[in-house]
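Fig. S4 source data, part A: sequence.
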Amino acid sequence: MRSVFVTALALLCMQASAQAQSQGVITGCIASATGSLYAVREGSTPAYACQKKDTPISWNKAGQQGPPGTSIPPLLEVPVNCGSSGTGINAALARQADKLIVSISGNCTEDVVITRDDVTLRGVGTDPTITAYRFNDGGMRIQGAQRVVLRDLTVTGGGVARVALWVDGGASVSAYNLKITGARNGLDVNANSWVSVAHSEIADNSLIGVGVSYGTVGISDSSIIDNRTYGLFLEGAVALLSRTTVTGGSAAIYNSVAAFQQCTLEQYMAVAFSRVEVAASLVTGRLDFTAGSAAMVVDTTIHGSIGAQGGSAVGLGGPVTIDAGGQPGISLSDTSTAGAARETLLTLTSSAQFGIFCAPLPSVSQITGGLVFTGSTNCPSSSQ
């Protein structure tokens, strides 16, 4: 009985040793005449002995370790010299890196498309420029990409593109020291995208300087000048302009929220279904509020006039000066109002019969709150 137990134990140990030795290894034989595989099993020896002329073979079930892969660099800078036959901008954008910087010199005639995150395009040298290549839909398009930075560049439609710089698909872009010019529309922001522009110029576009449709834009210390039809065109937009000059063309603001702080505005502004604030600014032209718009004008000088109709409300705060020439400084109609939440001084210069004019019945417009002003009016007051 003892010998049987010892024999069984020895067999178990040998089997365990063989399993440990052969774990993950497959062996077999290759027939020399046909190249076929036989006697295959998992273990360190074939299922039975190979023929004399045949070749034993074994392999690791897990496979052989391959060569080490190439890691993606955390930051890569790619130079693009458009004055030579080197890499183009789109080719540089195809390079792999967590963050990519494309340094651009010369004049690049190329329609650039950015769809990846964490990209910086910056100009180096003298007058680095990106010029649209195709007619109509050419230009630079940033679609859905996040944390894109553009700086020290001229972006031009070249007289052929519909848009010089188009941001859409929920992209987020920061632009610094940019010139956007030479297209039908200079800067287009839409589809829930967000753009910040600083120390830049948007000029000489044939239809719109800055157009925002259901997006957000912040513009500071910049110029929007000499755009033919609209300097600003906002629809379903949120816009904040500070220390910025807007001249040339008119401004159309529809169903939007817009604020102008320390700006110079030389244009006609038409506002509908919107909330607008103009603070510490200089305005040359007419501010026209319609369709239930709400406006606040604070610490501002206007060489022109204010109009409100369609149930719009104009609030005045701080010292406001209106030099209206031969027109009423403020014209109200329908159920529109002009007033102040607290006593506010309005200095109003006008050679018209009334400095503040209310349209006759059936209009029921009126002056509200503590508005103190020079000149005459035919408007009823809510305090009366």
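Fig. S4 source data, part B ends here. Confidence is low (pLDDT under 50) at residues 1-21.
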